[in-house]
Amino acid sequence: KAGVTQTPRYLIKTRGQQVTLSCSPISGHRSVSWYQQTPGQGLQFLFEYFSETQRNKGNFPGRFSGRQFSNSRSEMNVSTLELGDSALYLCASRGDTSNYGYTFGSGTRLTVV
Amino acid sequence: QKEVEQNSGPLSVPEGAIASLNCTYSDRGSQSFFWYRQYSGKSPELIMSIYSNGDKEDGRFTAQLNKASQYVSLLIRDSQPSDSATYLCAVANDYKLSFGAGTTVTVRA
After folding, report:
1. How far is CA A65 from CA A49, B34, B45, B63, B101, in A?
2. In the prediction, which pLDDT does A1 show?
3. Most exposed residue of A34, A94, B37, B44, measured as fewest CB within 10 angstroms of its CB?
4. How far apart are CA A34 and CA A45, in angstroms?
């Protein structure tokens, strides 16, 4: 069974640019969530989608947005990039039963220069 | 108060010893609790989940949950050098995971 797939693995962007990250969940998983990991702040929740609906959003500025498609694949977008957006962005998917754990993808390492 | 707090590390244990990791959480209504292992440069890997009070064992790992004390722990028995990693405690609420800062464990050969 394929795991959570994130693309691209690495990105280097310039301040002010925008970026789109992609996540394909485990087959059959309809819940997809995104996290940002930095050395200073640790793992922080960005947002969660289920069947194309955002069910929760973390405390991030509006420059961070996401969406989910009918096939459960998800994208997140960061506009007007800042140096502080440099981080590992992780996607996680979960099965429908609440007792399933969240499985993480390998992440996208974003560097803003 | 942080939502999830873990005992500060790093934690260094000799090979074959027991590593003990602790975690407290603030939301008394929390129902799902997880331990993730993260190797340097890698993404978190789920190693244990626990939902009811008591102990849950899986191989060399034992998770303990005490909802009254809002406390979760992880024991790693017969620690191996391959267990050297950062261990993250996570609590699920409202379709999100809240993570502790992590405890870095080093197993000395």
Report:
1. 11, 26, 25, 35, 25
2. 66
3. B37
4. 6
Q: How confident is the model at residue B2 (pLDDT cuts 50, 70, 90)?
A: confident
Question: Which pLDDT does position B8 carry in this prediction?
Answer: 74
Give the position of tokens 């890997």: B45
- Of B77, B78, B81, B82, the closest CA to residue B45 belongs to B82
B50: which 2 tokens? 């626990």
CB of A67 within 8 A of CB of A21? no
Structure tokens at A12: 């280097």
Q: What are phi and psi of B94, to 5 degrees?
A: 50, 45
Residues of A in contact with B32 (CB under 8 A): 98-99
Cα dihedral across residues B50, A32, A26, A2: positive or negative: negative
User: How do residues A52-80 score in pLDDT, each as one tens digit?
Assistant: 999 999 999 999 999 999 999 999 999 99
**B84-94: buried (b, 16+ CB within 10 Å) or exposed (e) per residue?**
bbbbbbbbbee
- Provide the 10 A C-beta neighbour count for residue A21: 21
Which residues in B have their CB inside 8 Å of a CB on A?
Answer: 31-32, 34, 36, 42-46, 49, 51, 88, 90, 92, 94-102
- pLDDT mean over B30-51: 96
